[in-house]
Amino acid sequence: MRPIPVGPMKQHPTAGSPEKAALHPRNRHQGRYDFAQLLALSPELAAYVRPNEHQADSIDFADPAAVKAMNRALLKQYYGIGIWDIPPGYLCPPIPGRADYLHHLADLLAASNGGQIPRGKGIRVLDVGVGANCIYPIIGHREYGWRFVGSDIDPVAIRVARQIVAANPGLAGTIDCRLQPNPADIFRGVLKPGELFDLVLCNPPFHASAEDAAGANGRKRQQLGTAPAQPALNFGGQAGELWCTGGEEGFVRRMVAESARLPTACFWFTALVSKRDSLYGIQKALDKAGARAVRIVPMAQGHKASRFIAWTFLDEAQQQEWREKRWK
């Protein structure tokens, strides 16, 4: 397997700036936020809305409470989620970037299916590290009708994600949240015998230590124009959400090794890769594991350029059989 070159990247400015970077064409979050509509749907957001340096309505994206209120309003406006909350200190991700990953994943499936996106409840997706916010399953189901399994090593995250699903009738029967009992495992202990997934997605812990995570948060605060003395993470995050031994490269390499032991359980395994330098080691691991095909897809993620890597162990005959049995 030859390494796949990474395509050109586009910078994604901080939300609230005059123009956003180009998002995926199907992403609902194009252009400026419609604060009048957001406030009509979610009046609590008004406490956090202020004119920015361009005299346009915005929020302080370095304030965790403001980000949470913004997410709650966006989920209500675009995805019909009436009840959504997460505990203090848990990751509160920017929704436009999360939606972009899912739309690009839909394109990945379409490229394997004659240009047609497989939709509906027959398409099953595993979200490794679903978190308390449950964002990927919510958006993925609302946009494409997919069913999800979300796994996490944190019992509180699983409990809260289940509460979000139970509180919103439109999500009933579409999202199954499962506790990963062993933090050293990724798939084992979560997948049931014979269970198949069309996609695996993952937003891995990016940092190798708590110190690395704190340093990255300081840099993010400088980009947002916030005094670095403020200790709180602007998007929150528990230890398992932010860092792990080996950082993102180590985590994805573990994913690769475990996925090689389940080569026919999923069509496309994927993971976000924040650091471009992580790709070389991950590609070497995929080559060693015998991946049949690898894709690296550039995308906007938050305020910076990012990408995800995708791999499959299915040969052409197996891919054709998968399409005929599951996507027709």
Automatic annotation (TrEMBL):
InterPro entries associated with the record: DNA_methylase_N6_adenine_CS (IPR002052), METTL16/RlmF (IPR010286), rRNA_lsu_MeTfrase_F (IPR016909), SAM-dependent_MTases_sf (IPR029063)
Q: What is its EC number?
A: 2.1.1.181
* Keywords for the protein's UniProt record, in alphabetical order: Cytoplasm, Methyltransferase, rRNA processing, S-adenosyl-L-methionine, Transferase
Class of enzymatic activity (EC top level) = transferase
Region: Disordered, residue numbers: 1-24
Q: Does the keyword Magnesium apply?
A: no
Location, primary (coarse class): cytoplasm
As its record notes, the protein acts as a catalyst of: adenosine(1618) in 23S rRNA + S-adenosyl-L-methionine = N(6)-methyladenosine(1618) in 23S rRNA + S-adenosyl-L-homocysteine + H(+)
Which Pfam families does this UniProt record tie to the protein? Methyltransf_10
Alphabetical list of Gene3D superfamilies matching this protein = Vaccinia Virus protein VP39
Compartment list:
Cytoplasm
- What is its biological role? Specifically methylates the adenine in position 1618 of 23S rRNA.
HAMAP family from the xrefs?
23SrRNA_methyltr_F (MF_01848)
Q: Which PANTHER family match?
A: RNA N6-ADENOSINE-METHYLTRANSFERASE METTL16 (PTHR13393:SF0), SAM-DEPENDENT METHYLTRANSFERASE (PTHR13393)
Protein family (similarity comment) = Belongs to the methyltransferase superfamily. METTL16/RlmF family.
Kindly provide the name given to this protein in its UniProt entry.
Ribosomal RNA large subunit methyltransferase F
